[in-house]
Every structure is written in C-alpha cells, then in structure tokens.
Automatic annotation (TrEMBL):
Swiss-Prot/TrEMBL keywords: Membrane, Transmembrane, Transmembrane helix
Transmembrane parts of this sequence: 26-52, 72-94, 114-132, 144-163, 175-193, 213-230, 242-262
Top-rank lineage group of the source organism: Bacteria
Protein's name in the database: Putative membrane protein DUF2306
InterPro entries in alphabetical order: DUF2306_membrane
The keyword Cytoplasm is annotated on this UniProt entry: no
A Pfam family recorded for this sequence: DUF2306
C-alpha cells in the first residue's frame, strides 16, 4: 500500500507530502505534552483541593474572584469551569490519534459527544463569569476577545456535531480541528505571554497592550495556521507543502518554549 503511494508519485511530491505529515505529527506530539502539563496543573491546583475541601478552596487560588462567600451560583460556575476544563484539555488530543479512532470507534464517538457538550458548558460558564458575575481578570477589550472564543466554540461544536451526524467525515475532521483550536485558545494564551516573558528576560512589558492582542490572537493565530495547513494539504503543491512544513516546525519551536516557560515559571511554582 505504502509502496503504491510512493511509486505512483514523483519523488519531490511524495517528499513534500511526507515532510508536511511529519511536521504536523511533531506539532501534535509537542502540543499533547503541553496540554497534559496544563491538565496536570488544573487537577493538582484546582480539582484535588475542591474534592478535599469543597469550593471554598478556590479562595486560595490566584483567581481574582475564585470564591465569594454567599455567591453559590458564581462559585459553582468557577468549579464547573475548571473541572470540565481538565476533561477537554486532557482528553482532546486522544480524539485526534488515528490509531485510537480506528481501533475504538465507539469510544471516539462517545468521547466526541462528551467533548462537544463539555466545551459548550465551559463556554457558557465562562460567559456567565465574565458578564454576569464580573470581577474577572482583564479589561472590556479582553473580555470581548475571550467571549468571541466562547461563541466560536459553540459554533464549531455545533458544526462538528452536524457533519458527524451527516457522516460527512471530510467536513467533520475540519470542524473538529477548528473546535480543538478554539477550545485550546486559553492554553495558547498562556503559552503566548510566557513565550513573550521568556524572550524578554522575564518582563511582560506593557501588559495591557500585550493582553489586548493575545485575547484575540489566542484563537485567530491557531485558526489561521490551521486553514493554511488545510490549503497546503489539499492544493499546496510541492513548494507550498514544504513551506507549510517549515512553518509548522517554527511554530512548534515557539510553542515548546511557551510550554517550558509556562510550566517552570507559572504552573509548577503555584503547586509548590
Ligand atoms: C473550553 C475552553 C476553556 C477552557 C478549557 C478554560 C479553562 C480555564 C482554566 C483552566 C481556568 C483557570 C485559570 C488558570 O489557573 O490559569 C479558567 C479561568 C477562567 N475562564 Fe476559562 N476556559 C475556557 C473558556 C473560557 C471562555 C470562553 C470564557 C469566557 C467567555 C472563560 C472565562 C474564564 C474566566 C472568567 C476565568 C477566571 C479567571 C479570571 O478571573 O479571569 N473561559 N478557564
């Protein structure tokens, strides 16, 4: 099978396809390691204390309004938000591994449904925390940026679901990947400012401007790169595929620095 594919294509074309595939796999492996690190932090910093001591333990976190005495609904929204966050951030990459998808299609289908519903619930809780409860980090520009992500998650989730039900798997794959990027935007945001701190000797500079930009870039940049990847895959040509492969390797290096800096400069120190 592999021989047929390789022998039926001119050498540069096959090489370009393989380079693009290898670059995407490298991106995925590094992203999965970083997402699991974030999941470990969410479990250890939020979930274990909530299980042990209830929602009151949110008072001991860095969240500006993690726990407010008497605000049962608001405290619950934060608790639900972080519990479900671990489920989508940690489990999401498993949905994209072809071997798991092909060998355990029922698990893929069931977890896919859970993932989509969970992502929508997190977004609704997040929108409630920002616009009704108030007191979240950031200014209105940033709140609108994050809220647009919440709306995109709901939209992409609906499209991924619809295309799966219609058994249009080419479209389903694309919408599911867009959903994956939008769901992980909160993680990209953290990598973004930790990367910035890393290359600026630990300083974030003008934090307001940085966060205004990152509140939108957290999903616009990954979604734009994803669209370029789709184009390179379907009609990129040899040059386009090599360029995309190189771009993905560069993006992966930036991401790896962000993961390293977020882990050592933020997540692990909060756990110690
Ligand atoms: C599915 C995607 C999302 C995930 C996985 C997620 C995950 C998280 C996590 C892990 C935290 C804890 C922060 C930390 O310790 O670093 C958090 C906090 C928070 N999230 Fe989300 N989130 C998502 C989407 C959203 C959306 C769409 C909104 C708003 C529309 C939102 C609003 C908030 C707010 C207000 C906080 C509290 C921190 C603060 O006061 O700013 N989240 N989220």
């Amino acid at each position: 099978m592999t021989d047929t594919i390789f022998s039926s294509q001119p050498a540069p074309a096959a090489l370009a396809r393989n380079a693009l595939k290898a670059a995407a796999q490298l991106w995925f492996v590094v992203a999965t390691a970083g997402l699991w690190m974030f999941t470990f932090y969410i479990i250890a910093y939020f979930i274990v204390p909530i299980i042990q001591n209830g929602l009151g333990s949110l008072a001991n976190t860095h969240l500006p309004k993690g726990f407010v005495p008497g605000d049962g609904v608001g405290n619950l929204a934060v608790g639900v938000h972080v519990f479900l966050a671990a489920l989508v951030i940690g489990g999401g990459p498993l949905q994209l591994i072809p071997q798991i998808r092909d060998r355990f299609p029922r698990i893929h289908r069931w977890y896919g449904r859970i993932y989509m519903v969970t992502a929508v619930l997190i977004s609704l809780a997040g929108l409630y925390m920002i616009w009704m409860r108030g007191g979240a980090f950031g200014n209105t520009v940033q709140h609108i940026g994050t809220s647009v992500d919440g709306v995109l998650i709901i939209l992409f989730g609906a499209m991924a679901w619809r295309t799966a039900m219609a058994r249009n798997f080419t479209a389903h794959r694309r919408w599911a990947l867009r959903l994956f990027m939008a769901v992980n935007a909160v993680w990209f945001l953290r990598l973004g400012y930790r990367f910035w701190a890393f290359v600026n000797d630990g300083s974030l500079g003008n934090m307001e401007v940085l966060f205004n930009i990152l509140s939108y870039a957290q999903y616009l940049v990954p979604l734009a790169i994803l669209e370029l990847y789709f184009i390179a895959q379907t009609r990129g040509g040899v040059g386009g595929r090599f360029a995309m492969a190189g771009g993905l390797v560069a993006v992966t290096m930036v991401m790896a620095i962000g993961i390293y800096s977020a882990t050592t400069g933020m997540w692990l120190p909060r756990l110690s």
